[in-house]
Amino acid sequence: MHATTRGAEAPAPRTTTRRHYRVARSRKAIGRFADALLRDLDRCGTAAEPRQALATVLDELLANVVMHARDARGVVHVHIRRRRGWVEARLRYRARAFDPTAHVPAAAAASIAEARIGGAGLPLVHALTCGFDYARRRGEERVRVRVAG
C-alpha cells in the first residue's frame, strides 16, 4: 500500500506494460477475454480508440481460430505489450499452418443480392492495425498485430 500526501503528484504511468492471457477455443471464452483485456488496458492508461481497435482485431483473430483453424488444439496464448505510442498483441496456438496475412479477400460484390456473408474480418484486421505479421515456429501458429496509440 502506498502512502500519499496532500498535493503529491500521482506516479507517472509505466511506459511498458505486459500481460499474458490463456484463451480457450470457444466464443464464450473470447468474450471473457475481451472484457478482461479492455479492463486491463484501461487500467494501464491506454486510450479508448487503440483499446477498442485491439479488442476488435483480437476478437476477429480468435474467432477465426475457433471457427476455421484446422486441427486446432489447446488454448490460444495472447501476449499483450503496451509501450508509449503502440500496443502489440502476439497470439500463439497449435493448428495446421495458415497465414492470415497472405489471405486475399474476394472481390467486392456488385450488389447486395450478390454479396456473401463473411470474408470481411481479415481486411478489417489490416485496416485497424499498423503491423500484422505471421510466422510458424515449432509447430505453432504465431500472429502479431500492432495498433497505434
Question: How would you explain this protein's 3D organization?
Answer:
It is a single chain. This protein is an alpha+beta fold and 149 residues long. The chain has a single domain (16-148), classed as 2-Layer Sandwich (Heat Shock Protein 90). It has three helices and five strands; from the N terminus they run E-H-H-E-E-H-E-E. A five-stranded antiparallel sheet has the order 1-2-3-5-4, covered by helices on one side. Strand 2 (73-83) and strand 3 form a beta hairpin.
Topology:
Layout: E1 16-23, H1 27-43, H2 48-68, E2 73-83, E3 86-94, H3 121-128, E4 131-137, E5 140-148
Antiparallel strand pairs: 1-2, 2-3, 3-5, 4-5
Helix pairs in contact: 1-2, 2-3
Decide which structural class fits the backbone: alpha+beta
Estimated radius of gyration = 18 Å
Overall mean pLDDT score? 86
Specify the overall morphology.
globular
Helix content: 25-40%
List keywords for this structure.
3 helices; 149 residues; Heat Shock Protein 90; disordered N terminus; 5-stranded antiparallel sheet
Short description:
By secondary structure, the chain is α+β, with helices and mostly antiparallel strands. It has 3 helices and 5 strands. It has a 5-stranded antiparallel sheet, covered by helices on one side.
